[in-house]
Amino acid sequence: MTVVSATIRPGRAGRGGRGRLGALGMAAAGVIVLAVVLAAVGPILTTADPNASDITHAYGAPAPGHPLGFDGQGRDLLARLLTGARTSLLGPLWIVALSMAAGTAVAIMAAWVGGWLDSVVSAVLEVMFAFPGVLLAMLVAAVFGPGLNAAVLALAVAYIPYIARLVRSAALAERRKPYIQALEVQGAGALSICVRHLVPNLLPIIAAQATLFFSYAMVDLAIVSFFGLGVQPPDADWGTMVGGGQSGVLQGYPAESLLAGGCIVVLVVAFNLLGERLSEGRPTNRPWPWRRTRAGGAA
């Protein structure tokens, strides 16, 4: 009786992070890290209450302790920008995390099983493409009331078909690789193969798409908040600040809208640049075990 044996070695995703990202990608990553740090330590950098209103300082110029001045209700702009960074980053993070987890799971299941399940999943995804994320978020807010949670959930659902279609294509190609067949011959279970080998080899694609979709989610969530259906005043959020500063723009005080909008633009560009650099990487097309297989055994 012939025993089938395979020597499985960890794959490599390519060159190191700096060599693959390049100077522009590293700069984009630096901007993102800086934004995360500022959002985390924002309350330490300023003692001003972001929600404290003093109408006597409405549209006030920069002053000691208030380097960016005040908005139309006399609230400190720097404090509101730093506080708003939290919801502006956490909201898209939750959207990407939920949609990526659901979309990846659906895509891998459809690619692995194939047949009628793949056809049904593809048909459902095609139907879901008919619902734009922003419109779905507005519909959910209209039904269940405005708020960050409703907008995040609606956008996460709207992003699932886009993510699932991209991951499914890559998973179908990976499913046909010889190492998958070798693992099946050795008796490895489907769940073990998917979790320990298939998903790690798809991580470069998943990471690149997650970065790109983060920028899309940030814009969509800002749009929802701009229309008053996301984060509710007086809580600070960059999208809410852009919308709340409209009256100031008409009166010649565009600082609130420009600063908040500028923060959104800078981070969206940074995430897009980083996502494009990450997308240049390729999956390993090799198995990724944590143990070597032995004759007659499975990883």
From TrEMBL:
It is found in: Cell membrane. InterPro entries: BP-dependent_transpt_permease, MetI-like, MetI-like_sf. Gene3D superfamilies: MetI-like. Keywords: Cell membrane, Membrane, Transmembrane, Transmembrane helix, Transport. GO terms for cellular component: plasma membrane. The keyword Transport applies. It holds the Pfam family BPD_transp_1. It is a multi-pass membrane protein. The chain crosses the membrane at residues 21-45, 93-113, 120-144, 150-167, 202-229, 257-275. Residues 85-275 form the ABC transmembrane type-1 domain. It comes from the Bacteria. GO terms for biological process: transmembrane transport. Coiled coil: none annotated. Belongs to the binding-protein-dependent transport system permease family. This is ABC transporter permease.
